[in-house]
Amino acid sequence: MILAKKIGLAVGLLLFALPALGTDLAILHNGFSIPHERREVVGSVTRLYLGAGKDYVDIATAQIERFEKDLSPAIVPAPAPAAAPLTQATSAKPQPLKTQDLKEVINTISDRHQIDPDFISSVIHAESGFNPRAVSPKGAQGLMQLMPGTASKLGVTNAFDPRANVEGGTRYLTELLERYNFDVIKALAAYNAGPHRVQQYGGVPPYYETRTYVARIVRDYNRKKIAERKAAAATAKTARKLPTPKVAAAVKQSALPGVAPQASQ
Q1: CB neighbours (10 Å) of residue 239?
Q2: Residue 116 clears pLDDT 90, i.e. is over it
Q3: Which letter does DSSP use for residue 25 in this model?
């Protein structure tokens, strides 16, 4: 199965393996459970809030079997460096890209690596807010926030070049997905906190920053897929309402009344 199919999951399925500081468990019919702080029903889905913030995931209500209290021991988050606002790089001049051009770059690279372009876009959104000159306090650079050492290993000589950055970041993300047997949650956690932290904690490390990061990408990706499905449904509905065009039948001249063949002179 190609990678695009492996991460092009149904809406709401990406958070099954995500630990959260929840007090309740949503038990699904397929055996998975989702910890959450609170919930509310929105139409045909149940919105599970993952923490005190606004991060949530929508699950089809029909997929939920029951709710239980989360009796598992609470994990005390390890101290993590406080995130500081991204700054602007002053020494490198990126190649400017218009929104449509960046979209085309993402589509081209997604085809090359067989990853859903919406997934790549959601990672870029969380990493840099689509700012090609973003630099983190730790030194991560560009759209997909590549550390200099990682960029060098990936062959990216200019991390502020949007094309090179997205290519390198997507290749690294592909490597992580393959490393964790296409476990999207672990791959995202490793992209944020590093593979050594995922190995240390046997999964998503108990850092609020990392958990929020993973939930943010999942929520953004799910929102794109929901909008995509609604648009497709609306298009199909409109097509069904359009009248069927009438096709005029071709009529031979010899079939017309009152017309006789002319005799040759």
Answers
A1: 8
A2: yes
A3: E
Instruction: Give the span between the Cα atoms of 97 and 247, in whole angstroms.
Output: 47
∠ CA(11), CA(12), CA(15), 5° rounding? 135
pLDDT tens-digit profile of 26-77? 887 765 567 778 889 988 888 888 665 566 777 888 888 888 886 654 444 4
In the block, tokens 């929104």 appear at 99
Whether 165 and 143 have beta carbons less than 8 Å apart is answered as: yes
Catalytic entry in 127, 167, 178, 209: 127
State both tokens at 60: 């089809």
Inter-CA distances, 159 with 95, 114, 164, 213, 253, Å: 11, 22, 7, 21, 72
209 is catalytic: no
- What is d(CA 219, CA 31) in angstroms, rounded to the nearest whole number? 22
Contact 214, 193 (CB under 8 A): no
Predicted local distance difference test score (pLDDT) of residue 96: 58
Contact call for residues 197 and 190 (beta carbons, < 8 A): yes
